[in-house]
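pls ignore typos typing on phone
uracil + seq
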Amino acid sequence: MRLVKLLANLGYGSRKEMQTAIRHGWVTDRDGNRLKADAKTAHEDILFDDEPLDPAQGVVLLMNKPLGYTCSTKDQGRLVHDLLPDRFRMRKPVLSTIGRLDKETSGALLFTDDGTFLHKVISPKAHVPKVYEVSLDRPLKGDEGVLFASGEMMLESEDKPLKPAELQVLDETHARLILHEGRYHQVRRMFAATGNHVTELTRSRIGGLGLDGLEEGAWRVLSDVDKALIFSGD
Ligand code: URA
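k done
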């Protein structure tokens, strides 16, 4: 891809602005040589304003989503995209979240511009389990695990039972729930159906990929090893 188009697609600016940037010598290789518009330099060797370029198309990011941020590009208020560099909003193809977390849910959230990868993660065939840490308003009764694992639980206004989910009880009001699908407000609705109320909810794991010390509000680019972990399930 020509340099002007590459930079514009990464969100550094319009094509016109990128032509100017190249003319002014702001785009160089790692040895400081100014690059021309038809340069064939490898992506990882290109610097913009002395900084390595953002990841090429096909990127996957992991964010530790804080509470109070919405997984949308349009809503009012704080958006998860606000936690990424501004130019990421201008990337083509766009960077979308893989699934969503509620505004009041924190934890592991993936972004990608790779539609095939996105579908692979959310496809029921991929069997990517999602692990949630749940705090509850009231003590667990003891029969929730059997209900959640039954494969027969129906949520209000739905016509298909939930897939079996695994409940690990941590103490009276804390549990870990492992889901193999992602329905709207699923964790909160499952506990509401048992007469309880979720007071705190965090997604700690997507497949075999955990947050591993990633701070709240921080994000990182996933390596191929990280990406494979998502599908490894352990
Ligand atoms: N289930 C919920 O209720 N909320 C989320 O954000 C994710 C799963």
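The first strand starts at residue 27 and ends at 29. The pocket of uracil is lined by residues 101-102, 105, 185-188, 201 (CB under 6 Å). more later
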